[in-house]
Amino acid sequence: MIRSIEKQRNILDFTLSSLWRRRGKNLALLVVYTLVVFSLGSVMFFTQALKNEAAIILRGTPEIIVQKLVAGRHELIPVAYAQKITAIRGVEAVKDRLWGYYFDPIGRANYTLMVPESIDLKDNEIVVGAGISRVRQVFRGNAMLLRTYDGRPISFLIKGILSPESELLSSDLLLISAAGFRQLFGVPRHDATDLTVQVFNKKEIPTIAGKIVNTLPDTRVITRDEILRTYDAVFDWRGGIMIAILAGAVLAFLIFAWDKAAGLSAEEKREIGILKAIGWETTDVLQMKFWEGMVVSLSSFFIGVILAYFHIFYASATLFEPVLKGWSTLYPAFSLTPFISGYQIAILFFFTVLPYTVATIIPAWRAATIDPDVVMRY
Amino acid sequence: MRKSDSFGLFIGTGMLLLVAILIQAHFVARADLPLLQQKAAVARNLGLTDLCLSTEARYTRHLSQSDWHAAFQSHPLALDHFPSGSVFAPPETLKKSHD
Amino acid sequence: MIQLRNIRKVFNEGRPNEYIALHDLSLTIAAHQVTALTGPSGSGKTTLLSLLGCMARPTAGRIVLQGREITSLPERFLTDIRRKTFGFIFQQFNLLGGISVIENVMLPAYPLGQPFSTLKPQALGLLELFNLAHKAAAKVEWLSGGEAQRTAIARALVNHPEVIIADEPTAHLDTRLSREFMDIMGDFKAQGKTILIASHDPLVHESPVVDRVVRMRDGRITDSGVI
């Protein structure tokens, strides 16, 4: 037992010397692999944290939302529709909601405007999210100019800034009174953006949703359940960046495996021949190859995972900023709660360390079985 | 110090850090619970339906409110916002309808 | 000590480039002696050496080492016996580049699981024997021909072998270093080791250190050198 530990330590010593000999190439491999683990880890941690956070935060979202569709587009809904909904059995209350988007040419960002139920705002008062405050450098007591739908500028007074802790939800929110909203967007009093429905019995939500669609065929219904499940699959793998990252990772890996498999170089073969000649067995050579793979992949794994953790939970996932921000100037400074589990780490390990190590050993198999007398013949 | 010992130390430190991270994450998550409740309260009071991740377009800002046509709201030839638009897909639940 | 009975070695058997290196060869190597194998190139010296040193298997025939037949032993056992019994000095030295001298010396002992704490001083001791201790940490590329030769010899000794096998050891050495090499072999013989040298260099097989000269030609022994 002691012997075999000593043997592995010895072989590892040699492996490290051997790797250090070609340190340029091996350091480059280390960097590439760390990046691969870092990317995969970052995406994993980010999506998992978002999912968990969404599940908790959005629990209180409206039970049913009713939107009107015209020619496939979400249009303003007549407030009168609420009466037909109230008539459905099981419906406790129906409220009309006003919300929309405002593009601010000065800040060069889109804001989400909402009329809040729970906050009383005077006609010229607004409350803005921390992101807006940051982008426009406006604070409590400042005035902010907004332009109406017909080009008139109106000055609003900032009554308060929403808490920075809630930036994940409210970074781009601009809360405004109903009167202010209608004045800004020209939404007539008989229309609203959509309707929210409260029911007596939560279990009835799907049934009532179906009844609403029957009663009002030009509407579509979104239930709380659907809203929550949206975030189960956040960050779709279907295209764009996710595929690019994965493809990059797989490609880096394949390049490496190819380098190894496209025959060990003549020099490497000669060295294995020497090792065999001086008394190393085939299994000893393979153990060395195993350590070769392990050294690089284990190092990359630890460095990559630890960096990914700090990136997502202590640096606001800044490297994803260009992906999510796009042309906008607004990016929430969100501090995600770290929901990471041993399971995620295990998956990362499985998909990075394992294949890498295997790719190092398998191509070496043939060369490792070289006859020991080969070096003598030449 | 032997090379293999240095490597062992390096990996050992890595493992310790990883374990420390897992433990710390656990405690931070626990400590964050009241904060999360606060955020939940904000969401409930304001009737919010989505996280503010990307403000580029309607369908990236309000993921749950978007539908198959949301990308075309701007105009029929409007190109998908890249890369944010390709990162988010319309919600799975759109695939079933309410009957 | 080592007996070869009716050994035949064929390379690429059955294929168009079939080559018979050794024809029905029988030989007994005595222990504690210096035996030299000599003959022109192509005579089969190197092949014979590799068979004697358990590095290769014969196509036909038997090999008996210290009374034990080893011809059909599986690779693992053969390798184990080989590395404990034999120390090889190759014609090209075959040291590993980019690695230090002392690590090259220690390499054959690595798979045996010998603890570093005992192995390193032992290797250093060997280097001291050959006045190379000051070069222990140097990379092998920086060594002179003679120093590389002595490193190769030190490496061959690290597992305390009973038999030392050298293949054309003086091929890259000048006269002075060649004589030095033979002196070292003489010292080993005095220590009780068995030595096998293949060489066409007269400096080797005419050396007083050599007890027996076996002459070969075309894969056969022409003069077994036994009186």
Can you describe what's shown?
The complex is a heterotrimer of chains A (378), B (99) and C (227). Chain A contains 14 helices and 13 strands. Chain A is of the alpha+beta class and 378 residues long. Chain A folds into two domains: 200 residues, no CATH class; 171 residues, Barwin-like endoglucanases (Beta Barrel), CATH 2.40.40. In chain A, the strands form three sheets. Chain A has a six-stranded mixed beta sheet. In chain A, strands 1, 2, 4, 12 and 13 form a five-stranded antiparallel beta sheet that branches. In chain A, 44% of the residues are buried. Chain B has 99 residues and is mostly helical. Chain B has four helices and no strands. Chain B is elongated and about 70 Å long. Chain C is built from seven helices and ten strands. Chain C is of the alpha/beta class. Chain C has one domain: Rossmann fold (3-Layer(aba) Sandwich), CATH 3.40.50. In chain C, 32% of the residues lie in helices and 26% in strands. Chain C is globular and about 50 Å long. In chain C, helix 4 packs across helix 5.
Indicate the overall shape of chain A: elongated
Largest sheet, spatial ordering of strands of chain A:
5-6-10-7-9-8
**Overall shape of chain C:** globular
- What is the average of the pLDDT values of chain C? 88
CATH topology of chain C: Rossmann fold
Indicate the radius of gyration of chain A in whole angstroms: 30 Å
The amount of beta strand of chain A, in percent, is 15-25%
Question: What's the N-to-C terminus distance of chain C?
Answer: 18 Å
Instruction: Report the CATH C-level class of chain C.
Output: Alpha Beta
Tell me about the largest β-sheet of chain C: 6 strands, mixed
Number of domains of chain C: 1
Listing every helix as H and every strand as E from the N terminus to the C terminus, the arrangement of chain A reads: HHEEEHEEEEHEEHEHEEHEHHHHHHH
Total DSSP E strands of chain A? 13
Helical element count of chain C?
7
